[in-house]
Write a structure and sequence with these properties.
single chain, 120 residues, mainly alpha
């Protein structure tokens, strides 16, 4: 058994450390990999999957996600989204409150003037 001159142990480079839990992929990463994957021949696709440490089932799932999102986006109605009827009602009631407060202010002024005229 050979002894090492280093005091610390060197990890075996053939063993990859794995983090706990599933890997997470950003939308940008998925789009980039899908775009590259779709331009390659069979051997190139295999090489890409090996290089990135991916399974072909992930590519299938990502394609389905992309198509589902595209269909959802295409199914959405054009233009602005419909206004919430509650927002319209709130705006109407706020305008009414402002108008009534103005009228109340005028009424108080009239009452105040009438009160002063009676005390003369």
């Amino acid at each position: 058994m050979a002894t090492s001159t280093n005091d610390h142990e060197v990890p075996d480079p053939r063993v990859e450390s794995r983090s706990a839990g599933p890997r997470r992929y950003s939308a940008e990463y998925k789009a980039r990999i899908l775009a590259e994957y779709e331009t390659l021949d069979r051997q190139g696709k295999v090489a890409l999957l090996r290089r990135e440490g991916l399974y072909s089932s992930l590519i299938t799932n990502w394609r389905e996600q992309r198509e589902r999102d595209a269909k959802t986006a295409l199914a959405a109605p054009a233009g602005r989204p419909k206004a919430d009827p509650r927002d319209k009602e709130i705006t109407r009631l706020q305008a009414r409150v402002a108008r009534l407060e103005t009228e109340l202010g005028k009424a108080r002024t009239v009452i105040e003037v009438q009160g002063k005229l009676q005390h003369r």
